[in-house]
Amino acid sequence: MRPSDDVTPTARIPTDVDTPDKIVYGLTARQLAILAVAGVIGYGIFRAVGDLLPQPVLFAILTPLAGAAVVLALGRRDGLSMDAWLFAAVRHTRSPKRSAPAATGRPVAAPAWAPDTAAPTTAVPVLRLPATAVSHTGVIDAGSHAVALVACTTVNIGLRTGDEQAALIGSYGRWLNSLAGPVQIVISAQRVDLSSHAQRIADNAETIGNDALADAARDYADFLFEVAAGRDPLWRTVTIAVTAAGDTGRDTEVLRRAEHAASALSALGAQTAVLDGGRTAAVLTCATDPYSPADVTWARALPDEAITGPGD
Length: 312
Prior knowledge:
single chain; alpha+beta; two-stranded antiparallel sheet; 14% strand; elongated
C-alpha cells in the first residue's frame, strides 16, 4: 500500500518543443512578417489612390486585404498555419497526378533507398540505408548529421513511493528540457540467442575445478538448451539515438551529447552505456533483421574493417 502522505508525481514537460517563439503581442516572427507586408501594401494603396477615391470605396478595398492578412497570419487548419496550408494546397494542385497500373502505365521511379534493379546483375541487391559509415568510436555518419547510440535499461517506478516517483519523473523531465537536438528513443523486443549462451556455459564448465559447481553449470546449460528449443524467448532493449549537425566538430559534439544522456539517465537508476563502433554495428545489424537469432550484445566488425583469422 502507498502511504497516505505521498504526493502525486508531476513534472512540467513542454508538449510542443517546436512551437515558435512569440516576439510581441503573442505573435511569432512569421505572423508579424505577414501583417507587416499586408500593412505596407495597404499603405501603398492608400497613398496611391487615397486622394482619388471616396472613403467608402477605399475602405471597401482595404477591408478585404486586412481580413485576408489576419486570416493568413492567425488562422490554422489541419494542424498547419494557414500560409503553410495554402502553399501545400497550391503545390498539390500544380503537381502532376497519374493513376495507372505499373505494368501498362507510366513506370514509377523507385525510392532512393531501394536497390537498383534496372541493370541485370547476379549480385544480391543491397539496401541503401541512411547510415553511410560507422567509426570506431560509434559515431554513425548519416550524411547531413551524425548519430551516436546509448543503450540503457528500464527503471521500475511502480514500486516506488510518491516522493521517489516525483524525483524520478522530475529528473527525466529535466533531461528532456536540456536536449539541444533531435533525440529518438527506440524500445524494441528482440529474440534472445540462448543456445550460444548455453554453449559458452557448457564450455566454461569444463574448466571449473569444483565438481559440484561444474555439474551445476552443466545443468544450467541443459536448461538453457531446453528453453531455446521449446520456446521463443524475447528481451526488451532500449536504445537512445542522439544527433548533431554541422560541418565541423559534429562527431565530438554528438559523443558529448551521448555522454550527457547516459549520465542523466544513470542518475535515474538505469544502467547506461555509450556504444562503440562494434556494438553500434551490432545494433544496426539486428535492426535490419529483427527476427534473426543473433545476439545484439556481440560486437560486429565495421564495414571497412578487415577480418583476419588465426595463422596456420
